[in-house]
Design a protein that fits this description.
This protein is an all-alpha fold. Helix content is 65%, strand content 0%. The protein is elongated and about 115 Å long.
């Protein structure tokens, strides 16, 4: 049974926060539910690796650094499209393997000296399953690039907003300081420029010269 001192110590420790304290850390923890609350067990089929999918998702998150719920969703959709695209490639290879086994007797009875590309060509001829695979592959590629484009647009917009905020916090220029009444010490006034003196002249004739006395 715990003593009163131990109970008091436990209560004291419980009040101490062990979570992130910076805004960046709290934002990262806030998005953890979106990042890995993806129900991977539903998305990942039997025979596939949940850890491989989570590694793919973590790699995309490390590359693009999403910080908002919308950005996290776009990264998650990119991971899903990439995962399904990889799946369709494996399914296509498996389809060729199964069809080759089914047609092996026909290959030996009706054809001679067949190469592997020849067998692949026979399997692919008028095969609607392979056509569906190709359509599905194109759909996943479009989904990946569509989400990537939207994510890059959001990241560029957020970067531009951060740049504008940082520029608005720069030290104002002396002109701006004077406009805001925050000018520094007054500079000495320049000496006044002297006004030029104007000389007035008249057109009166000069007095006649007088002869000296004899």
């Amino acid at each position: 049974m715990a003593t009163k001192a131990q109970i008091a110590a436990n209560r004291k420790n419980a009040k101490k926060s062990t979570g992130p304290k910076t805004p960046e850390g709290r934002a990262a923890v806030r998005l953890n539910g979106l990042k890995h609350g993806l129900t991977s067990q539903i998305l990942v089929l039997p025979g596939e690796s949940i850890s491989d999918f989570e590694h793919l998702l973590d790699s995309l998150e490390a590359e693009h650094q999403p910080t908002t719920p919308t950005e996290v969703i776009l990264v998650r959709q990119m991971a899903m499209a990439s995962w399904r695209l990889n799946r369709i490639l494996h399914m296509e290879a498996s389809h060729y393997h199964i069809r080759r086994s089914d047609l092996e007797d026909n290959f030996e009875e009706y054809y001679t000296n067949l190469t592997e590309p020849d067998r692949h060509a026979i399997i692919a001829a008028d095969d609607k399953t392979l056509i569906n695979f190709a359509r599905y592959e194109a759909q996943m590629e479009r989904s990946f690039h569509r989400n990537l484009t939207a994510l890059q647009r959001l990241l560029a917009q957020r970067k531009g907003e951060m740049t504008n905020q940082s520029q608005s916090k720069e030290i104002p220029t002396p002109v701006a300081q004077a406009a805001n009444g925050n000018a520094g010490p007054a500079r000495p006034a320049a000496p006044p420029v002297p006004t030029p003196i104007r000389v007035l002249t008249t057109n009166k004739p000069a007095p006649p010269a007088t002869s000296p006395p004899t």
